[in-house]
Amino acid sequence: MNMNQTLLDYLQRILNAPVYDVAIESPLEQAEKLSKRLGNRIWLKREDTQPVFSFKLRGAYNKMSRLTSAELARGVVCASAGNHAQGVALSAKRLGCKTVIVMPVTTPRLKSDAVRALGGNVVLHGESYSDAHAHALEIAERDRLVFVHPFDDPDVIAGQGTIGMEILRQHQHPIHAVFVAIGGGGLISGVAAYLKAVRPDIKIVGVQMEDSDAMIRSIRKGERVTLEDVGLFSDGTAVKRVGEETFRLTKNLVDDFVLVDTDAVCAAIKDAFEDTRSILEPAGAIGIAGMKKYIAQHNIENESLVAITCGANMNFDRLRFVAERAEVGEAREALFAVTIPEERGSFKRLCEVIGQRSVTEFSYRISNAKQAHVLVGLATNDRQEAKAIRTAFTEEGFESINLVDDELSKEHIRYMVGGRSQASQNEHLYRFEFPERPGALMRFLSSMHPNWNISLFHYRNQGADYGRILVGIQVPDSDLKAISNFIEGLGYPCVEETQNPVYRMFL
């Protein structure tokens, strides 16, 4: 079938898809803050507002509504990382048929619980979608159930294509590009089929995670490839092998592709929250992350751009990770390892180089008599500022390493700086609350007696009004009254932790 005939076929399927039995026409909202920051008119197609918080119910229902009464009586089975599963479960509830949902064991509990709440019989199997898919096919053959594919089915693709139909109905002015997340390719295939049939001038840009890029690799090679492993941060797009039909459509209809990393997606989740007050799941924010990167790469200005926010099934437990990594992804935080001489005044000189910049993290533990290694996080506006800060460290005579792209540091080392030290004699440990404002740290250091040595320091900006700081100070016994007076005069809430058994054990 040539592509013109393919587009005509899909156009007919999309126009006749009865998705509104279960789905809503999701809003197309302008993201005011993001538009202003990026110098373009940014529109978000809010599929995260669907009844199951994802676009997937469109394709699932379009497929299942076309099953015969005999097929519905047998029941259906599907494999899913979560969102397709909820779509199938809701559709089955509406159509009155039984469902078996095979989900990877890595699926967030939020999604598996949601499927059970809709009446789906959940079977956990395998580490990825591909493992669950193979098991679901076995169940389908064994129990004579109808398999509902999450993406590689014309009716599923057509159901997702109704999103493209809505975009053109809601925005009748020129659109430069639409950005679509790709897992198995069902969403982008459906959206591209409709847009290219009706408005071929609109660019379709596919976005994938760097660690789950099966479609992009397949396009580059000219045939479908199977990834050995996929990243699980964006579980909704963690697909090892794309569909045969979705590959064909994507290869012929999609104009360009963008790869994004975890930090960029975390930043996109924050962007969406700031404009909508909604929290997207990683897969739901991939389109925004790709759009931001594409704008920067191609110097796009004053255009109308649409990103499909395709899901909001976010595990609450991930929010702390997302919040921390968003700052790095938006180049709002730079992380450095700085080496300073172990001598009185060095720590203060380091703080003077930092100046009035907002400190996001400070970790230090005395190690030997010659030099000290300090982990420093600083709020920045862009990556160029991080380079300028490193230059300032060098000019002051401090050796430094920019860790913004070092995954080991971001994932682990920043939380593990410290340990026991033979050089920490006469150390007293204090836990302070500092007012979270510029200059508070310098006030503390300037007030301290020059004969007292800081031997441990840890601080992490948590976004609250007060920062919580742990400080080790080497003080001779004769000065204990003086340090007590110093703390009282400082006026910061303080608790001494020198006898805390955890401190004695680890530090």
TrEMBL record:
| Amino-acid biosynthesis as UniProt keyword | yes
List the keywords (alphabetical).
Amino-acid biosynthesis, Branched-chain amino acid biosynthesis, Isoleucine biosynthesis, Lyase, Pyridoxal phosphate, Repeat
Matching Pfam families? PALP, Thr_dehydrat_C
Can you state which reaction this protein catalyses? L-threonine = 2-oxobutanoate + NH4(+)
The record ties this protein, via InterPro entries, to: ACT-like_dom_sf (IPR045865), Ser/Thr_Dehydratase (IPR050147), Ser/Thr_deHydtase_PyrdxlP-BS (IPR000634), TD_ACT-like (IPR001721), TD_ACT-like_sf (IPR038110), Thr_deHydtase_biosynth (IPR005787), TrpB-like_PALP (IPR001926), TrpB-like_PALP_sf (IPR036052)
Q: What is this enzyme's EC?
A: 4.3.1.19
Give the enzyme's main class according to its UniProt record, as a single word: lyase
Q: Does the keyword Repeat apply?
A: yes
- GO molecular function terms listed in the Swiss-Prot or TrEMBL record: L-serine ammonia-lyase activity; pyridoxal phosphate binding; threonine deaminase activity
The residue ranges crossing the membrane are: none
One GO biological process from the UniProt record? L-serine catabolic process
Query: Which cofactors does this gene product need?
Result: pyridoxal 5'-phosphate
Q: Which residues form the ACT-like domain?
A: 334-405, 428-499
Q: Which domain of life is it from?
A: Bacteria
- Annotated metabolic or biological route of this protein: Amino-acid biosynthesis; L-isoleucine biosynthesis; 2-oxobutanoate from L-threonine: step 1/1
Q: Which family does it belong to?
A: Belongs to the serine/threonine dehydratase family.
What is the documented function of this protein?
Catalyzes the anaerobic formation of alpha-ketobutyrate and ammonia from threonine in a two-step reaction. The first step involved a dehydration of threonine and a production of enamine intermediates (aminocrotonate), which tautomerizes to its imine form (iminobutyrate). Both intermediates are unstable and short-lived. The second step is the nonenzymatic hydrolysis of the enamine/imine intermediates to form 2-ketobutyrate and free ammonia. In the low water environment of the cell, the second step is accelerated by RidA.
Complexes and interactors: Homotetramer.
The name on file for this protein is L-threonine dehydratase
The UniProt gene name for this protein comes to: ilvA
